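Same chain as my last thread, 236 residues:
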Amino acid sequence: MRHFALIFLFLSSLFGKGFFEPYTTTLQSITGNTATITDSNALVIGSSGIIVHKFDEEKSTIIARASVIEKSGNTAKVRFEVFDLLEQSAFPLPGILPQVGDTIMLNYLYDRALIVAPNQAVFEEITKHFDEVTWIHPDIVAAYLATEYKPNPGREEFRQMCRENSAGVIFFALNYNGYLADCQSFKVLKKFESGSISQYQVPFYTRVRGIESAFWKMDSEQISDYNRHYEKLLVP
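reply #2:
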């Protein structure tokens, strides 16, 4: 197996040892469920974050999510989405629509990440290189999958784990390519070439063994092809 190190050293010259710097600005104009903001080199198509409405000097609240859908010149366009990362059944969702002047914080929680790696060597290489990122250990994700009888995790399982662990992105290490994807949209934020992989653990590297399927669950089955399974989850 060829390691990922060479490409990661190249990436470090672009992003340091994190992924994307957080970026905060304000909504400039709003049309329907979209708004324009001042662009930044820190943003890519698919970058997501939160919109904060300020009531007064002491009170503010998160009212929506937003994702970058377009970049043109010195501006970017974002689309509003329901913010459910901190959803509580006992509390209603805020009934406030985004307004011009509201604060938008993009690349939100992008310093906390889930990781899908095929073996321990790749897992350790990635996590050691990006040492400024807080990695949610795959054992936590695997333990959840075991309780759900879900050895073939899909988007909803990963979204749930991102919500429960306050993570913003997922790193997928696949054969010849690594992908950094937004937790909610699964939009690929960054793709980079790597080496070939000859050793796989499914559903991914974890010390949790025996994630069983269940005959009464139609979508519960073991992964037969690691790369194909995760490639299908990603949005180009």
